[in-house]
Amino acid sequence: MMGGTKRDHDGRSRSPPPASPFMPIFETFRNELDEHHDRRERIIKASRDVTAASKKMIFSLQRVKKVRGELPERINKEVQGHFNTIVTTLESISGDLQGINAWRYRRQITGGLQEFIEAATFKHYLETQTLLTVDAAAAAVPGGVQLTEDDYLLGIFDLVGEMMRFAITTMATSGELPGNTADSEDGREISESNILSDLRELRTQFAALDTTTSSGNGLGRDVEKKLEVMNTCVEKVENAVYGLIIRGRERPKGWMPDLGDDSGRGREPVESY
Amino acid sequence: MAEPVPAQMIDPAIFEQLQAKIDEDSQVREDIREILQTLERQGRTVQSILSRAHATRSQNLSPVVEAAENAIREQVGTINKLAEVASKYPYYKYNFMWTRDIQNACFAILLCGWLGGFNAPGNQFQQGRLLTIEETGAILNVPVNLKDRDAFHLAIEEYLHALISLIEELARLAVNSVTLGDYERPPQISRFVKDLHAGFQILNLKNDALRRRSDAIKYSIKKIEDVVYDLSLRNLLPVQ
């Protein structure tokens, strides 16, 4: 272990200072803590990878043109590819999140899970025009990783942002309000159910959610911030639909509505929380 | 159009379920907080008894230690009640609520043990002892460093935090021992704390509270060394 023996001025070897009697205790602690930090780091990295793959999934899904119905094959293939990445990533850390450790690393994994829920519920919405339930969302998480209600709730908030983006883009490019089943001559008629009514329903449900009792902890704070962002999102769609109705079919196809400052960075306020 | 209109975007059960979960969570926190209030009060009592050690000569310590032991036993009762409630839920979900109180309780036990408390029956009254995490867990009547099942326990990090508190308290005791005319205790404390510090130095701590506090151990060591130096300069150290 040691390179040589320490010697004093006269060249006699000096005895090393007596080792601390507590060393064996601390060696055990060191091993335990090292294991813990390694696990923690693996999970942080996995969470980042899941976030990145989920974002890519969402980008692909944003190219879909209508709600309800199967995804176009090319997009579906891309989405599946990113989903497979998520499966591999989560399966690789599945063992680190078992038993007592499922909650130990909650804060490290929650970011990735929220983003995944955002992607999974967005896909589900595009396919069925319904909201994926908590249980179905939990079952959709690969690798046996536990999904909490908080992860789900915060993921759904971000779903609103994606629905907004999808609604605005679709209206701008095709002049159709997604989910609108009314088919009138001038395009001014709107069916009872469409993406705007869905967004409003979400807004109503979120507004009714009572989180005051958990205002002291993380969820209460997050919810408050996200509620504001969500309300802005719904309003943007409301304004866009207003434009669609008032101008009807007089608006040339492909004309982009002026979104002001948000046109380029529209996603940011949603993503940054 | 051809597609049937979906009945409803949101199954109302979804938000009912979310609300139920939020309410359940608040109730659990409420229950835990209630127990913690008692725990905090008992913790203050223990600390106030132990603080008498700074003004009590070594040979007169046993009544102080005995009183502290009794107060700690009362506290342990509350901790066991907490353990019972907390073990119904994932340990790490609510751990943040009580970890400070458990660290404090653990520190009180370590200090009491160092002062000669929690001796095995029949053993001589003995100062300067380190209670291991297992011994501390046994006094608290809770498991330690649990890995194979999800229940209340004393975590390694909590024990380490308590050790750092012990070091800080012993630095203060070194100074006050001199005031009491006890010149034997500072070198004893010095050896004990240095041994602990050597242990802390082999830990790979990340940038967290434990790391910050363990970085500050050196200031306690310096404080104790200054006391020993002052004594040795004046030939006041007892001959070994």
From TrEMBL, chain A:
InterPro entries xref list: Translin_C, Translin_fam, Translin_N, Translin_sf
Entry GO CC: cytoplasm; nucleus
Top-level taxon: Eukaryota
Basic and acidic residues compositional bias, start-end: 1-13, 262-273
The UniProt record lists the keyword Cytoplasm: yes
Ranges for region Disordered: 1-23, 253-273
A molecular function (GO) term: sequence-specific DNA binding
Alphabetized CDD domains for the sequence: TRAX
SUPFAM superfamilies: Translin
Keyword Glycoprotein on entry: no
Compartments where found: Cytoplasm; Nucleus
Keywords: Cytoplasm, Nucleus
Primary location class: cytoplasm
UniProt record similarity statement: Belongs to the translin family.
Protein name: Translin
Lineage, uppermost ranks: Eukaryota, Fungi, Dikarya, Ascomycota, Pezizomycotina
From TrEMBL, chain B:
Signal peptide location: none
GO molecular function annotations of the record: GU repeat RNA binding; microsatellite binding; single-stranded telomeric DNA binding
Record-level GO BP terms: RNA metabolic process
Any single Gene Ontology cellular-component annotation: cytoplasm
Entry keyword annotation includes S-adenosyl-L-methionine: no
Keywords: Cytoplasm, DNA-binding, Nucleus, RNA-binding
The keyword RNA-binding belongs to this UniProt entry's keyword annotation: yes
Location in the cell: Cytoplasm; Nucleus
Superkingdom of source: Eukaryota
InterPro entries, sorted: Translin, Translin_C, Translin_fam, Translin_N, Translin_sf
Cited Pfam families: Translin
PANTHER family cross-referenced by the UniProt entry: TRANSLIN AND TRANSLIN ASSOCIATED PROTEIN X
Family label: Belongs to the translin family.
Name of the protein described by the UniProt record: Putative Translin-1
Biological source species: Xylona heveae (strain CBS 132557 / TC161)
